[in-house]
Amino acid sequence: MATTDDKGEDLIQATLAKKGYTEVSKLGEGGMGVVYKCRHADGGLRVLKFLRGDFESSEEAQALLEEGNQMRQLRHPNLVQIWQLIMTPTLVMLELEFLAGGDLHCRIHDPQGRPISSEILMIRA
């Protein structure tokens, strides 16, 4: 599992503070970024996903921003709501709805990691 370098971690922590968030817990980290469960100054829980990369290319940055804005408009009970997308030259922050109950992988796989059939998933819903 990749780890966040000190400079990247400092930028993330500064962004959290600037936007009025306090970290509750780190939910995960991988090669593309890190995900935190955070509490906003308004008291609400959110998930903040930070993607690392080179976002200075105007074409790629514009495409990512457009896609993020389109995704923000989607409303459906089976989709996690995207509240906002913030982009810097080296970091993208997605503010997402927090849904309690564990991660999706645990909900659609049995304890041995095998996928659960769609019929059983429909019964659970």
From TrEMBL:
Entry's transmembrane regions: none
Keyword Transcription: no
Keywords, ordered alphabetically: ATP-binding, Kinase, Nucleotide-binding, Serine/threonine-protein kinase, Transferase
UniProt-listed PROSITE patterns: PROTEIN_KINASE_ATP, PROTEIN_KINASE_DOM
MF (Gene Ontology): ATP binding; protein serine/threonine kinase activity
Enzyme type, top EC level: transferase
UniProt binding sites for ATP: K49
Entry keyword annotation includes Transferase: yes
Catalyzed reaction equations: L-seryl-[protein] + ATP = O-phospho-L-seryl-[protein] + ADP + H(+); L-threonyl-[protein] + ATP = O-phospho-L-threonyl-[protein] + ADP + H(+)
SUPFAM superfamilies, A to Z: Protein kinase-like (PK-like)
Domain Protein kinase, chain residue ranges per copy: 21-125
Record-listed E.C. numbers: 2.7.11.1
Pfam families assigned: Pkinase (PF00069)
PANTHER family from the UniProt entry: CAMK FAMILY PROTEIN KINASE, SERINE_THREONINE-PROTEIN KINASE NEK1
Protein name from the UniProt record: non-specific serine/threonine protein kinase
